[in-house]
Design a protein that fits this description.
Shape: globular
Number of strands: 0
Largest sheet: none
Low-confidence stretches: none
Strand content: under 5%
Number of helices: 6
Radius of gyration: 12 Å
Length: 88
Amino acid sequence: MKDQTEEFNDVLLLDDCKIKELLKEIDSPLLAKALIGTGSEVQEKFFHNLRSLDVAMLKEDMEFLGSVPLEEVLLARKKVLEILRTLN
């Protein structure tokens, strides 16, 4: 069974259309928290599907959050994955 980090990394398997659909359903603070500690590939998957202004704001949100407890990051990732499942 995959752990939550591996499962969240599966967003790399989604096409851009599905990522854009997901982005319409989640707010920036939730995504910012979910992306903390992810690899650059995962972050770029989301950034690639946002307008440059939205990317700048998301990166700012991530910096502003600073050090977030792992529990909160994992909860944010879980919420993003739950939203993704409702889109299928």
